[in-house]
Amino acid sequence: MHTDLVAALDIGGTKIAGALVDGHGSILVRAQRATPARKDGDTVMRAVEEVLGDLMASPLWGRVTALGIGSAGPVDASTGTVSPVNVPGWRGYPLVERARAVVGGLPVRLIGDGVAIAAAEHWQGAARGHDNALCMVVSTGVGGGLILGGHLHPGPTGNAGHIGHISVDLEGDPCPCGSRGCVERIASGPNIARRALADGWRPGPDGDTSAAAVAAAVRAGDPVALASFERAARALAAGIAATATLVEIDIAVIGGGVGKAGDVLFSPLRKALADYATLSFVRRLTVVPALTGTDAGLVGAAAAVLKARMDATAGV
């Protein structure tokens, strides 16, 4: 069995990545296409088919036993459909059925991209050895996934742990999701930059208005940039503390572009967490940066397949 491989897809609004992954989490073959996000659904699917075609052309394809897909959401694993916010041509799109047809009927498992990150971090990264963890992506959006009782907990539709849409400000800004004061509306990269600009932060001569530019301004001592990051950190802390209070996680792992801001994010986040995570059973909660990097989506999609197979074998 150790010679078996898993095919993995990581589908986002910018790129569709594919890989053949072995039982140790090593990527043996890669393929990638840009996501034609503004085109119709079948055009997007053609890019997925091209990525799978590249993988199937590998001499290693004969060892592939299943396909794992981590997709931008919302996803619905119970119906095998996806409706990524940033890919308007896919609404209730039958991705699992279409992908299964391409790969000759192999088993296909679909999970949300936040759940994929959690699977990767628990298998290979910062949540390794932790039975109860929240793993988050903080970038253009804010997503997440849960490890509970030592197992990936995707929930019935594959979206459990979607911390970005916990409301942490009852009077907060309306969120595109329809709610108000969501973690994502405060702590995502574009919203950190939006808040800083609204409060008077001005970008440098290069005109860069990304969260990374705001983080650089924090390091240079800009108080407005600092205030925006501190507000984002408080929103994340409130969401993480709420999650820990609900399901007793002992570690929160943060990846994504904003997570790369380092101490600019983690210092105010740890300070804020002490204010929100106050009950005895959540005080030991730690917050750490993710370790799996840009391959997390692919490794996690493969991990979800491999872990499900191990659980089935063990009768879990």
From TrEMBL:
**Entries under InterPro entries matching the protein:** ATPase_NBD, ROK, ROK_cs
Family, similarity comment: Belongs to the ROK (NagC/XylR) family.
Q: Kindly provide the name given to this protein in its UniProt entry.
A: ROK family protein
